[in-house]
Amino acid sequence: MSFKMDNVDKQNGRREHYKDLFLVYGLVFILSGLLLLLFSLLRIPNLQDYQDIIIGVIFLSIFISFFLIVIAQKNNRNRKRWRFLLSYSEEEQTAILKLFNIARIKGLWALPDLDEEIKRHFLESKKVKIKVTRGYNLFFNDEDSKRDIFYHCIFDAGSKDKREIELLLHLPCLHSLHTRQRAEANHMDVAEYVEKLFEVVKKLKDVTLSTENKNEITVKFYNDYEVKWRYYIFEEKSNYKKTLYLNYYDDRISGAESAMLKIEYGEGSLCHDFDKKFDDIFSNKTIELVSNIKGDISLLPKTFCHPECGDLIKAKYEDVFKVKQR
Asked: Is residue 288 one of the residues assigned to a domain?
């Protein structure tokens, strides 16, 4: 069926191409004839003496014809693009357009332009909220990291400015489908995945111990509550304007490699909703896995979701932080 449809599409495309050619030739013929008629009406005595003018007229006709064809094709593409909208009633069309306007979506951004936008917003921000699963590919700059945008922001370009950073990471659980899916998407087993997670925590903990880096980082862990959404929210220093970058986890690839929607803040916008949701999760639905107190690297929970999860978390914590749990 798809093969037949492809053939039909190709035939239709050839038909459209031939139509355009005939239209161009027709317009050239008509325009040339009209311009030559104009010459005759002006009683030019000998057209042989005006060969350069006649050739120029023909070329001008060709240019005008092609210009008209391009305009027609562009209008046709726009009609196709909005055809879905025209199938609705006037009230429904208005509702759909308002939905896009109120949501304040400003495009789907992919690498490398996405990183440039994030860096710009980070440097202009006084507060950053980040919700990811593990964040290794964002916060590390090594051969295992696929992307290191927040490494450059926190440890390089943005290290000298005071900034509050709230980070939500996913609490590792051997029984969590999300943990297993993210480990698989990053081509590693769960144990290695958890170890990399603690490397992120230690890396960010080192920032709080530095006297040179002015970023203030608080890391908390959420469970399987709304795990599929990953996003960053930047609040600007000057006018409190907020910008959200949002995407949905793809089970096939690392979250750091995915394109993100850019959404501006406003009453009823997605940025407004996700900002409120982040604050609710951060304040009410999280735990501190490693102490956020400056100079304290204690593993805080005494009990975990499952005994085997506790054993894995304690083992990887000890390996990364080089301390022995009592």
From this structure: yes
